Amino acid sequence: MAGGKCLALIAHDQKKDDMAAFARANRDILSRWKIVATGTTGGRVLDAVPDLNVTRLKSGPLGGDQQIGALISTGEVDALIFFVDPLTPMPHDVDVKALMRLAIVYDIPMALNHATAIKLLPTLKA
């Protein structure tokens, strides 16, 4: 993914509406970024804001979380916003934990809920 800053967006199923609303409310800032997203989340974001530059990867449980993790480890993702649903069991929980671990290891900004994403967004330089 050559050129420009890249932001990863992910949302668990119960948080996808929140992510779509977040994208709609922050379209001006997000429009300055290349965005990678897991499959369904990326589709919901594009439905909400069709003019964003979103590359959809695989669905999280089908490898999308790992694809974003790989992009983090190669320096191609500069920040991660992941709306996590802590109240619903996730069959791919180990992938989610691995993704968070990579964001920590590679020291990229990471927001795991709406409140933190709102605080993080203005600090990101596109």
Automatic annotation (TrEMBL):
Domain MGS-like, first and last residues per copy: 1-126
Molecular function per GO: methylglyoxal synthase activity
Lineage top rank: taxon: Bacteria
Active site: 65
Enzyme Commission numbers on file: 4.2.3.3
A Pfam cross-reference name: MGS
Family as reported in the entry's similarity comment: Belongs to the methylglyoxal synthase family.
Protein name in UniProt: Methylglyoxal synthase
Organism for this UniProt entry: Rhizobium laguerreae
Recorded name of the encoding gene: mgsA
